[in-house]
Amino acid sequence: MSGYKGKVWLFGNNIDTDVIFPGKYLVLTDPNEMAKYALEGLVQGFSSKIAKGDIIVAGKNFGCGSSREHAPLALKYAGVGAVVARSFSRIFFRNAINIGLPAVISKYARDVLKEGEMISIDLERGYIQRRNGERLPVEGYPQFLLEILKDGGLLQNLKKRVKKEKRR
Amino acid sequence: MAMTISEKILARASGKDRVEAGDYAVGKIDLAMIHDLTGPLTLNVLKEVGYDKPWDPDRVVIILDHQVPANSTVTAALHKRLRDYARKYGLKNYHDLGRQGVCHQILAESYVKPGMLVVGADSHTCSLGALSAFATGIGSTEMAAVFLTGELWFRVPETVKFDLKGKLERGVSAKDIILNIIGRVGVDGALYCAAEFAGEGVEQLSVDGRLTVCNMAIEMGGKTGIINPDRKTLEYTGVKTAPLRSDPDAEYLKVVEVDLDEIEPQVAMPHSVDNVKSVSEAGEVRADQVFIGSCTNGRLEDLEAAAGILKGKKVNLNTRLIVIPASQKIYLEAERGGYIRTFVEAGGVVCNPNCGPCLGGHMGILADGETCVSTSNRNFMGRMGSTASRVYLVSPETAAATAVEGRLTDPRKYVRGYRT
Predict the structure, then answer these.
(1) Whole-prediction pTM value?
(2) Residue A124 belongs to what domain range?
(3) What is the pLDDT of residues B308-333, one digit of tens each?
(4) With b meaning 16 or more CB within 10 Å and e meaning fewer, what string describes B46-83?
(5) Regarding the domain with residue range B5-259, which homologous superfamily does it belong to in the CATH classification?
(6) Does the ipTM exceed 0.85?
(7) Which of A37, A144, A158, A160 to mutate to test the interface with B (most CBs of B within 10 A)?
């Protein structure tokens, strides 16, 4: 789980769910379809420009607005490996973790990291590793959230729990 | 130790004597709501899990509201999935076309009681805190977890208290209060917090107005908006008592004082809800479209206020007016009050209860360069259609005055003598 590694894409404050995933596409239910429109409101053709595993690094209140899970789903299926932000809107934060996309809180990342640089994130130890050796601390998760991310999302976590129930 | 109403509800729901801000609690859910855009994703997850029966069919509410009636085969298929699911389990709380309205309004009219723990797969579920419930929006996947287990984890939020003093001037209403507050504290001014509205200013507000205020708590990052119960709450919800309320010495993260006497008609300018000015200082804004409706301002009091201004007048020839009552019940009451006739005679259209243009889904969509003055709750870039369009958020009074003049207009000159 700790192998999150990719190129940095910088964004500003208050990136809302409508620019991450516009309302007119909310009728889509296939995440691979959703991916085509990820961040369409801000970066034309975002999903074809990013490489698998790339990392979004943003300012405060990332994902504010709607509860649409389409927003983190579109990012994940477009290839985004993790989103780092100074703070997240509460529903986006939960949704991202629930679909297995790490939403990582870092006070300093947005000010320090450069567009396009390669970073890796170690969630269990709680830091971002830069190529120059520098480490930026990130906020830790409570254990049960780490478990959900380890399982790949709440769905996989639920499946495991349902299996256990059946065995009883 | 003293607790806030939010802490008391989360303590009750998680079977504890007390919880405090920062604790994690697993709460038993009293009501769980899905709609036509978020619900199908929940069903996808349940299908993957291989077990889709809700834990308690009576606590599940399904409402078609975002794109009703279906406008395409894709939407029709989404509706059919929810309909089939409701039939499969004989869900009595299923609201199909003609028996529905905007989901939060239906929850307010028929389901929510003070002290409940309510989750909805829609961010504006926070509206229901107006009825002294702890109500919050969640995603589709965690809603699947709720359907399976009847429980969900919560981080007990800190509470920001907004103390409303004084009295609103005529022509200024609940929407102006909440826009003013968001303009002051910013779009993350209550991030992850419960926003508790209190004081004499809240006591004066009708339940309709309280729903408007709590509706937009999410626009400052709030987990819920919430108001302590009083006589109006009990009357509206039909219960005799509502024992859970904030202790007088409960702890707040901060207290923000709001002087209602000072508030003028407000407008949130594009493309952020905290980009708030007084209408009188907003400059010239031509309106191609005016929308009166949504979970923020589609209630009877809103339609009454708008009709009061539009009565006997015509919508400006350069402007399109769309009015959408938030529920079938409101639609009928507005018909009885003569408001529907007023809107149609003025040259507006009245559509069936649904979310309408608010989210740019299936009606009232804006072209490049167009502007809508709207009573809804979000003005993000591209929210109502083209990313080159602009949305201004206002009260129903301001929207109605704007429809008459074809440009953003302070409604106070139209309300003299009205609603005395």
Answers:
(1) 0.95
(2) 4-140
(3) 999 999 999 999 999 999 999 999 99
(4) beebeebebeeeebbbbbbbbbbebeeeebeebbebbb
(5) Aconitase, domain 3 (3.30.499.10)
(6) yes
(7) A158
